[in-house]
């Protein structure tokens, strides 16, 4: 596959997920030749990892809410991530 599409690192979560869904549909149809299927699978795996990383970063930002001794939200603190 000469054109692998845009650089995965530059994709938003939504764009990466949409591309991943398209790859899954294509692979499920089983109409791609073996070599192309392997390339699609590899790109799909990279897209999946990208989506997981974006979700993990979002979760870390959400978890920045400070909890008090009673387990109730006591405020927030700045997120120090990317």
Describe the protein.
- 56% of the residues lie in helices and 9% in strands.
- It has 82 residues and is mainly alpha-helical.
- A two-stranded antiparallel ribbon has the order 1-2.
- Helix 1 packs antiparallel against helix 2 (34-62).
- The longest helix is centred in the middle third of the chain and has 29 residues, at 34-62.
- The radius of gyration is 18 Å and the shape is elongated.
List keywords for this structure.
82 residues; mainly alpha; two-stranded antiparallel ribbon; 56% helix; elongated
Largest sheet: 2 strands, antiparallel
* Beginning-to-end CA distance, first to last residue: 32 Å
How much strand? Answer: 5-15%
Number of strands: 2
Q: Which bin fits the share of residues in helices? A: 55-70%
What is the H/E string?
HHEE
Cα-atom radius of gyration: 18 Å
Low-confidence stretches: none
What overall geometry do the principal axes of the alpha carbons give?
A: elongated
Oligomeric state of this protein: single chain
Average of the residue pLDDT scores: 85
The structural class is mainly alpha
Order of strands, widest sheet: 1-2
Number of helices: 2
């Amino acid at each position: 596959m000469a054109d692998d599409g845009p650089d995965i690192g530059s994709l938003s979560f939504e764009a990466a997920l949409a591309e991943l869904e398209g790859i899954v549909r294509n692979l499920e149809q089983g109409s791609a030749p073996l070599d192309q299927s392997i390339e699609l699978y590899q790109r799909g795996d990279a897209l999946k990892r990208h989506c997981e990383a974006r979700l993990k970063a979002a979760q870390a930002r959400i978890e920045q809410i400070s909890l008090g001794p009673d387990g109730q939200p006591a405020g927030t603190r700045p997120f120090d991530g990317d």
